[in-house]
Amino acid sequence: MGKFILGVLIGFVIVACVGLGYFYFGYAPAATAAPPMPLEKRAAKWALSARIKKEMPNGTSMAASETNLLAGAEMYKRDCAVCHGLPGEAKPSNIAAGMYPKPPQLWKHGVTDDPVGETYWKVANGIRMTGMPAFKANTSDEAVWQVSLLLANADKLPASVTAALQQPISAAPANPVSAPSTTHMPGTK
Ligand code: HEC
Question: Which of 33, 61, 84, 157 could form a disulfide with 161 if both were Cys (CB 3.0 to 4.6 A apart)?
Fold first, then answer.
């Protein structure tokens, strides 16, 4: 019995050493272009979906009105388009193309099938170790819902909203950098 337990212990130590060695000796992928680690994708997906199931809100009382969708489109252009693309865009930006995991191009493979509460959770909280930022710390809850409604309705947007997505960003940035002072320095003209 003692020998058996010793065997099990030695087995554990060997497995732990191989695991540590995988990281310590540089076998684990580190560059964005490297192939995923064994089970990496599956483990990340399980963790994410289990967490979202626990925490996502069950829908919203906010209407997918034109006003809310237009506000969502402005936020989208400013904070999301660089990674997730715009309608009709031929290829991902250089930023998106260089990332791992790659940000889905949301106007080709959208999230219209996902409950809006799930998209809200992802935008509010971000997705750890993927480059998907969390927006709840610096964006109003209302704006997070508006952009989530935009994506949930991406396949049936009013023409005005699709048009707005094609226009340059119109809203002033949330925290405008103050314009250079025009006051004269003493002693100058
Ligand atoms: C710096 C790049 C970047 C920016 C900016 C960004 N995202 Fe993401 N986003 C990602 C990446 C990468 C993923 C994929 C994460 C994964 O593989 O799990 C992602 C995933 C998502 C998903 C899940 C997609 C799916 O198929 O399940 C949604 C929804 C999303 N982002 C919405 C947004 C919104 C809305 C914004 C702007 C408010 C935004 N993202 C800004 C990189 C970004």
Answer: 157
Q: Are 92 and 161 in contact (CB under 8 A)?
A: no
pTM, entire model? 0.86
Q: What is the pLDDT of residues 29-40, one digit of tens each?
A: 999 999 998 899
Ligand 1 center from residue 84 Cα (angstroms): 7
For residue 85, report the distance from its CA to the centre of ligand 1, in Å. 10
Range of the domain at 95: 63-166
Residue nearest atom 25 in ligand 1 by C-alpha distance: 111
How many domains in the chain?
1
Backbone angle region of 89, left / alpha / beta, with phi > 0 → left and psi within -120 to 50 → alpha: beta
Residue 129: give its domain's CATH number.
1.10.760.10
CB 85 within 8 A of CB 96: yes
User: Residues with beta carbon inside 6 Å of ligand 1?
Assistant: 75, 79-80, 82-84, 99, 101, 103-104, 111, 119, 122-123, 127, 130-133, 135, 147, 151
